[in-house]
Structure of Glycosyltransferase involved in cell wall biosynthesis:
Amino acid sequence: MTLEAGGGVWRYAVDAAKGMGERGVECLLVGFGPQLDRTQRREIADLDNAHLIWIDTPADRTATCDADLDRQPEILTRLAHDERVDLLHLNGPAQAAGLDSPVPVAIASHACIATGWHAVDTVPWSADWSWRFRRNQRGFAAADAVIAPSATHAEAVRRAYGLTVPVNVVHNAAVPSAGSRQRKRYVLAAGRWWDDEKNAATIDSLAASLSVPVVMAGALDEEGQGRFAPAHAIATGPLPPSEVRRLMGEAAVFVCASHYESFGLSVLEAASAGAALVLSDISTFRELWEGSAEFCAPDDTAGFAAAIEALLADPARLEAMVTAATLRSRQFTPNHQVDQLLDAYDAARVRRAERQPELIRA
């Protein structure tokens, strides 16, 4: 299974490997990009079923051109042969472009430039995205099964790339955590605020409209990607995951105004920490959180403000929404995620068996 040190893929891969260990599955973890820190290496070392190999090539998200990633398929093919693995789980289609794997290949699409761009139609398509899109297309062609974290994202990826292989839904997961007994009257949002999909402008405008503070946790800039400077919200900058979870356990309300999410892991983490949810009315959130959150149009600052103020003014309603979100979050457990992953792997093996005569002829 491939991984990288930053972003949600790290947490996804490590938790999946841990869950696989409980089912007797051994995992070879192959990392790309910036090296792990000491805490991350210790976490890997604590996994009895996992072995880590780190490759000195750029991660997909830090690559500047197609050639930066050209070594990855060759490396993965060689490792699959030398380590005698039974299946490749690649956490990004770009890693599979040109792959000649001797074993079934499952490719996870955690995020996608094409689906995100369609959701944020005010952002022009860039030349940088064009090579990434083409590389993703070539990568998906090597897949025996594709994995997506929601049915909404599965359908979006299927349409964007014209996929013919099965797309299996494997939900993100979070370990339930107890929220603070004494909640504080503030609103929390978390994300990569330089990313237009996260709709930082609406969150910042919301802060000017509310009677309580709005805290924006997460990076405000990324080299070569962009920067957001809030005028009204309290910006924390990047925080350790443990500190973000602490804030989630304190905040009365967690708000997310994203234009697009493939899943929205921060929403799940906030719900499992005991926050009430006020979310943008997008297909992914309706799919996952219908009946467990308040919904507003992504750019409707006044609507978000009204929904949040109504919850804060009605403790009984606030508590009911906390309970609803917490109960829903318990559906997305690591154990459930592993069940879905194993189903996806079975689908990849079946597809590979069906394709084997075709691959031999090629």
In short: The CA atoms of residues 202 and 300 lie 8 Å apart. DSSP finds 13 helices and 15 strands in the chain.
